[in-house]
Amino acid sequence: MTVLHQSDLPNVPLLHRGKVRDIYDLGDSLLIVATDRISAYDVILPTPIPDKGKVLTLMTLFWLNYLSDIVENHLITAKVEEYPPILSEYAEILKDRSMIVKKAKVLPIECIVRGYITGSAWKEYQEKGEVCGIKLPKGLRESDKLPNPIFTPSTKAELGEHDVNISFEEATKLIGENLAERIKEISLRLYEKASQYAESKGIIIADTKFEFGLSEGKLILVDEVLTPDSSRFWPKDEYEPGKPQKSFDKQFVRDWLKNSGWREDQPPPAIPQEVVEKTREKYLQALKLLTGQTLASD
Asked: Does residue 87 sit in the same domain as residue 111?
């Protein structure tokens, strides 16, 4: 079973269904389940990518541990044998694709750090010479490494809506200057440590997204961390600025969807089997390169 629906956990209250994750209420904690659903351009596609949820969970667990010296995180346990009795009958479904986490008041901001100019940042730079109000040097090419990583927050959109890039000043109005400064500093430190490690494993982290919450008044890292869904991973040995890069992330699906003739006012099409297989392969490759892990089924 790969695509989880509420009926899979009928005894546990479903709190929220996101594009990829289902969140269940355990009373004093939450159960986060990463499904095999995949989204592109803020739309959930009808075809799942087998084992994707496991890759996202295993990679997040790796990074939560690796980055725990910089900021606390929401993880309580991801070992199904430590889950409460109400979840015991679902152990096989939940293994490797779920975690029990602290409840937190999630900040209404996505904390995006960019080390390279690509995606929506490249588009904005071409139009304005800046990204989220940050002036950048003239003459940058697509995929160029930035002089220093930049913090470019965005709003958190409702399901089916688009996130909106905002300036740091706008972020301070949403959550206050002190908190905005803290998440900016922590996000940049997380990116710096993670990107140095990833490069040693042959992967460039072009950009990534972090999320934070407040738990008992303490700022903690929440949600997924440095996965192929929340980051752009490029193969270091094939990096060539001046054009789009090959990637280990869902850019492959984005590109297919963009070239399929689909329009945003239409239901998304089914993903062809060869695109499904290639995407799964890229996710598994990223997992092995970064964490050394493979899935039991592989």
From this structure: no
* pLDDT at position 251 over 70: yes
Q: What's the total number of domains in the chain?
A: 2
Strand residue runs (E) in 167-241: 203-215, 218-222, 231-235
Q: What is the mean pLDDT of residues 232-238?
A: 96
| Cα–Cα dist 284/13, whole Å | 31
Q: From CA 155, how far away is CA 165, in angstroms rounded?
A: 7
Give residues with Cβ within 8 angstroms of 99, minimum separation 6: 31, 32, 57, 60, 61, 75, 76, 77, 78
Is the sign of the CA dihedral 37, 254, 203, 207 positive or negative?
negative
pTM (2 d.p.): 0.93
Tell me, yes or no, whether 119 and 158 share the same domain: yes
Q: Is the Cβ–Cβ distance between 276 and 47 less than 8 Å?
A: yes
Provide the angle, in degrees to the nearest 10, between the axes of the packed helices 177-200 and 52-66: 110
Cβ atoms 104, 220 nearer than 8 A: yes
Write out the H or E segment, with its range, that includes residue 185: helix 177-200
Q: Does residue 298 register a pLDDT over 80?
A: no
